[in-house]
From TrEMBL:
PROSITE patterns xrefs: FORK_HEAD_1 (PS00657), FORK_HEAD_2 (PS00658), FORK_HEAD_3 (PS50039)
InterPro entries listed in its UniProt record: Fork_head_dom (IPR001766), FOX_domain-containing (IPR050211), TF_fork_head_CS_1 (IPR018122), TF_fork_head_CS_2 (IPR030456), WH-like_DNA-bd_sf (IPR036388), WH_DNA-bd_sf (IPR036390)
DNA-binding region: 208-302
One GO MF term: DNA-binding transcription factor activity, RNA polymerase II-specific
Residue ranges, compositional bias (Low complexity): 131-167
Domain of life: Eukaryota
Alphabetically ordered keywords of this record: DNA-binding, Nucleus
Name of the protein described by the UniProt record: Fork-head domain-containing protein
Length: 457
DNA sequence: ACCTAAATCAATG
DNA sequence: CATTGATTTAGGT
């Protein structure tokens, strides 16, 4: 049994859903459902609030002997799976709409329907049951409507700039620390809060979320099964979760690209040679740690920097007081106990350099050990229906032989097997000490030089 | 008020 | 799509 957690994208004539096993053990990738199927799903929702088993063609399964989830959100392990509601019911501006169907997937109609109490506005979560055989034909889908009459109202015509506040209903414990949540990643915890809000209200709403782009990108990456996403995957994830970002896409997407390139916490992972598609994958630097350990997700205490640019670019000095602060260089392997920056477990022996302290405080235990990620064909944010893409297991010697990279276009030498999603989906990436994986922690951190370059400004 | 992270616009490849 | 510069905005102290 798989749970459809998200609609992660809308392309041409189909929608993509992120999948999650109900036992919480295995991630199964994403599934592409044709528009016809999606429409049938919604029709089923509209006609009945009862969970239904259907196949990938939207045909009802008459033998629903398998387990279904009553609420569509929570499975046996107690994990919360939210949403898809607004994703199914709404489509970002510019998304294709099927004008021949009774259901029009465009936002304006959604707004209209929502205001008129249409069933279209009902949040939905679908369950997909997959047989042992991974052929699409044998895949069935259970749809389980989630009642809610508190969907946010449809958008108005205001520009996004008018939405600047967080949801008033969001009472986030900003002081939440890893010591309070068993060491869970703070960003993922924040995402759980988002999920809960969506679960509660049906949609996140059109307000601008109180997260910086860096935070949003981090969330997207961390929730992805393999900790990496393509650019479009990031776009889709953000739009799927936060309706606010279905507007002004050129603006914020440019900002996302800028964030990815500018911030050392984001590193590129090469797309496998045999994999179609353009662009690379992006992942988090394995040493960036809890960037938002200060409790807020708008602004980090300090930027995560890898190393000073060898030849700092000219910086226009308009103010004599303005100086180019040397970029913080990561040095030394992380001590074992850096788990909680909020507890002040600074790895730095002394604060000779305040900047060093600030940087290192961002490094947490999550940074220790190897990052287990691999090229991900099936991330939620990806327009892909590759259920079981062959993991790309890069031989370590590839990296051992790699010269220090100085080309700005060089990719982050990450290509790790990802083999257990169960521990990582809700607990950040799965860091493994398996020696068969490339272990960047085993090398001097100064080896990082080259694959990113940022000036501190 | 100040510092600077983040956002924005945009040129370039 | 990716990088970078320039500039503005705004969070946090």
């Amino acid at each position: 049994m798989l749970t459809v957690v998200y609609c992660v994208g809308v392309l041409d004539s189909s929608m993509f859903f992120g999948l999650h096993s109900c036992d919480g053990k295995k991630f199964k990738g994403s599934i592409k459902l044709a528009w016809k199927t999606v429409q049938k799903l919604i029709t089923l929702f509209s006609n009945s609030m009862e969970p239904k088993l259907i196949n990938t063609r939207g045909e009802e399964n008459i033998n629903p002997s398998k387990q279904t989830l009553s609420n569509g959100y929570t499975n046996q392990d107690g994990m919360t799976h939210a949403l898809a509601s607004h994703s199914i019911n709404t489509v970002a501006n510019g998304y294709p709409s099927n004008t021949n169907s009774m259901i029009h997937f465009n936002y304006n109609l959604y707004a209209t329907a929502n205001q008129s109490g249409s069933n279209y506005s009902k949040p939905t979560t679908a369950l997909i049951e997959q047989s042992g055989n991974s052929s699409l034909g044998s895949t069935s889908v259970t749809v389980s409507p989630v009642s809610s009459d508190s969907c946010s109202s449809g958008r108005n015509s205001s520009s996004p700039d008018s939405f600047v506040s967080a949801s008033p209903g969001q009472s986030v414990d900003r002081a939440y620390s890893s010591s309070m949540n068993g060491g869970q990643d703070l960003t993922l915890h924040e995402f759980e809060i988002v999920q809960e809000k969506i679960k509660r209200e049906g949609t996140y709403g059109i307000t601008k979320p109180p997260y910086s782009y860096i935070s949003l990108i981090s969330m997207a990456m961390k929730q992805s099964p393999k900790g990496q996403l393509s650019l479009s995957g990031i776009y889709n994830w953000i739009m799927g979760i936060f309706p606010f970002y279905r507007d002004n896409q050129q603006r914020w997407q440019n900002s996302v690209r800028h964030s990815l390139s500018f911030n050392d916490c984001f590193v590129k992972v090469a797309r496998p040679l045999n994999e179609p598609g353009k662009g690379c994958y992006w992942t988090l630097h394995e040493k960036c740690g809890e960037m938002f350990g200060n409790g807020g997700h708008l602004r980090r205490q300090s930027r995560f920097k890898v190393k000073e640019r060898a030849q700092p670019k000219k910086k226009k000095i308009t103010n004599s007081k303005q100086t180019v602060v040397p970029k913080i260089e990561i040095k030394e392997e992380e001590p074992d106990e850096l788990s909680n920056p909020s507890l002040g477990a600074s790895p730095v022996t002394a604060a000779e350099q305040q900047e060093d302290v600030k940087t290192m405080q961002n490094v947490t235990s999550a940074a220790a050990g190897a990052v287990s990620v691999s090229h991900d064909h099936s991330s939620w944010g990806e327009a892909s229906n590759h259920y079981q893409s062959a993991p790309v297991i890069s031989s370590p010697q590839i990296f051992e032989a790699a010269e220090p990279q100085t080309n700005l276009n060089d990719l982050y030498p990450l290509s790790y097997e990802y083999n257990d999603f169960s521990t990582s989906i809700h607990q950040s990436q799965n860091y493994s000490s398996n020696s068969s994986f490339y272990n960047p922690a085993g090398s001097n951190v100064n080896d990082y030089d080259g694959y990113e370059n940022t000036i501190y400004r």
